[in-house]
Amino acid sequence: MGQLLTFQTFRTKDEALVIAAQLEENNIPVIVEDGGYMLDSNFTGVQYDDPVLLKIDAAHFAQARKILADNINIDLGTVDKDYMLFSMTDDELHNVLAKPDEWGLYNYKLAMLILAQRGRQVGERQLEDMQQTHYGELAKPVAFDKSWIILGYLISVAGIIAALWQFFMTILSLFGLLLGWAVMTAKTTLPDGKRVQKYDEVSRRHGRNMFLLGMLTCIIALLMLLRRILL
Predict the structure, then answer these.
(1) Domain ranges of the chain
(2) What single DSSP character describes residue 79?
(3) What is the pLDDT of residues 86-107, one digit of tens each?
(4) Given this model, what pLDDT does residue 89 score?
(5) Residues whose CB is less than 8 angstroms from the CB of residue 184 and which lie 6 or more positions away in sequence, other chains included
(6) Helix, strand or coil for residue 43?
(7) Which of 4, 112, 119, 213 is 20 to 30 Å from 58 at the Cα level?
(8) Whole-structure pTM over 0.90, yes or no?
(9) pLDDT (tens digit, 9 = 90+) per residue, 201-220?
(10) How is residue 192 annotated by DSSP?
């Protein structure tokens, strides 16, 4: 089994267990766990609005999404004709098919049925190409917020200054170190299970600088602590 990554999030454990059962019936190992308290998503690259996490092997993401989509049965005749997808153009419905991670599997399945009703069926190859284009956009790293970069530098430098005065040295240096580490290592999970860097090279370089400054301050703090103990 490979690395288990968050496939979906839920507000309650009961909701998660329903989906878990569907996946386990198709021989996909599942773990359901409480998300707990995490670092802010600005740092980690992971955002959970719901507290319950459903995790599966990254290699099973595409298979799991297909299984769940196949389990959704929609009768077009019973769907409210005022539902937003019915007023969408073909291009807008293609956008829904390209981004099931954003629109949800119900809208994904409904969009496919509406296009088929219009005689605009989308083949498997075309569908895969659209989704891969979307994944490529998601995989592009983003720049880390400049205000946090400036704050990280200030705190790291402040840690060195504080070290000279033996004042809040460890707390400041550790914060700068952790912030730098988060920016360097933050990753995001694509809908197909791939993990890519969240921040661009410039942001990661700043993170590395903050990490090194914070580490330097920690070393100074330890040396000063040892000096006080020995003397």
Answers:
(1) 1-61, 72-139, 146-230
(2) S
(3) 999 999 999 999 998 889 889 9
(4) 93
(5) 204, 207, 208, 211
(6) helix
(7) 112
(8) no
(9) 888 888 898 888 888 877 87
(10) T
